[in-house]
């Protein structure tokens, strides 16, 4: 593995599919290009998987499940996962640079957030491999009842482009710890880090076919995976719209589904909040990863008493956010991931204006040096005078664009905060602990942050209420998504069953 060099921009990297422990071309021979979103230059040329490759990978994953991997002790599985976490840590600088080159996120985020959390997740679930246990149930009479917790088999995993390696880690680590095998499709925009991860799986010594990585398009490779009768589970992270397609595709085979989907999180600033802390929290909520975060605090509810003071300070600080070369350690925001995402954000600026909202700052791409003129950059943007029913307050924009909504009192606030199809996360900023806990309980969301935002740990569950999805990633809860429970009954009396006579 080697870091992307400036001179490399002219010679794209090349990646094949990773199936059954081997690097192979797509059956069709097709490839696609993935650009560096900061410059528009081609970063890599990648084999394009389709249905035939999915079929091959599912066969390989089944063979591994029924063969070496299925027979391996939990301890050995855990050791392999731990070895992988160490290899990722050793290569984390190169991987961070590649992640930034492929996705556009600032290098300080790849280095200090994404990669450390990738390592943490593999390490955490390595420990779980030997701790997945059944229970004994105190049933009445001369009976003994216990449960076994077994792996599901072959898992399909489809992941998005916003945290490519981290989303892969959230899904691979618990699936493998529980003893499953995996066929994973990265997002078409960001396959590079995941293909490099394939090399580390090989180096760690995982048996062939335990993981198979199939870069390709959603409508082809992704759809073939979700509808495949040979998989036992499909796990998806991405848009709610595609999540519904996945659930439909899986329904024909009743394949188990877990979905981590969109959000439109309320980030609530009460009048008694520490203003500076809350302003920084609002920025963390929306500008982190260029706003391309499913739990982004994109609906900013501000108490009427402090609205002017708060938005003034937020606007001032937003103007100082450094947007530019993501490889520069001083950069706060890099480009959006793609031209499509940039267009989508621009479209929402027009929609906001059309709906009567005001643009307090941003609303357009920044002026940057020649080298970055073809990049997909956008300025930190605040919409003022937003009403909760407006499209910019209801639809996931997935950019550094926040809608500020004023509230008068707690009842009015709670009603609006919960008035959304989503329920992934929420933020609360207040010094009043009873109010903080009251709201944490009343908000319909899978994660609530109090006087902080975007905190994650491999041990803490993450997932959505309502249309934000099914299931929980990370923590012990993730293991429930990758295991089946079997209940075993044993007669202790030694007597024949007399129910139908002697
Ligand atoms: P998306 O279409 O939901 O993509 C997520 C993953 O699903 C990608 O791997 C994608 O493959 C795949 N996919 C797409 N169509 C599929 C299908 N019919 N069957 C199976 N898999 C399929 O998201 P997007 O188009 O990249 O982004 C659109 C919007 O989704 C964003 O603006 C944002 O609102 C939301 N989003 C949310 C999250 C999140 O974490 N909740 C993440 C990303 C995007 P391809 O990449 O090859 O299309
Ligand atoms: Mg790319």
Textual characterization of the structure:
This protein is α/β, with parallel strands linked by helices and 502 residues long. It has 2 domains: 13-261 and 468-487, Aldehyde Dehydrogenase, Chain A, domain 1; 266-450, 3-Layer(aba) Sandwich (Aldehyde Dehydrogenase, Chain A, domain 2), CATH 3.40.309.10. It contains 16 helices and 23 strands. A 7-stranded mixed beta sheet has the order 15-16-17-14-13-19-20, sandwiched between helices. Helix 9 (240-251) links the parallel strand 11 (233-237) and strand 12 (256-260). It starts with 12 loop residues before the first strand and ends in an 11-residue tail after the last strand. The mean pLDDT is 97. NADP nicotinamide-adenine-dinucleotide phosphate is lined by residues 158-162, 185, 187-189, 217-219, 222-223, 226, 237-239, 242, 245-246, 261-262, 294, 341, 344, 396, 398.
Features:
binds NADP nicotinamide-adenine-dinucleotide phosphate; 2 domains; 7-stranded mixed β-sheet; 6-stranded mixed β-sheet; binds magnesium ion; Aldehyde Dehydrogenase, Chain A, domain 2; alpha/beta; Aldehyde Dehydrogenase, Chain A, domain 1; 502 residues; 23 strands
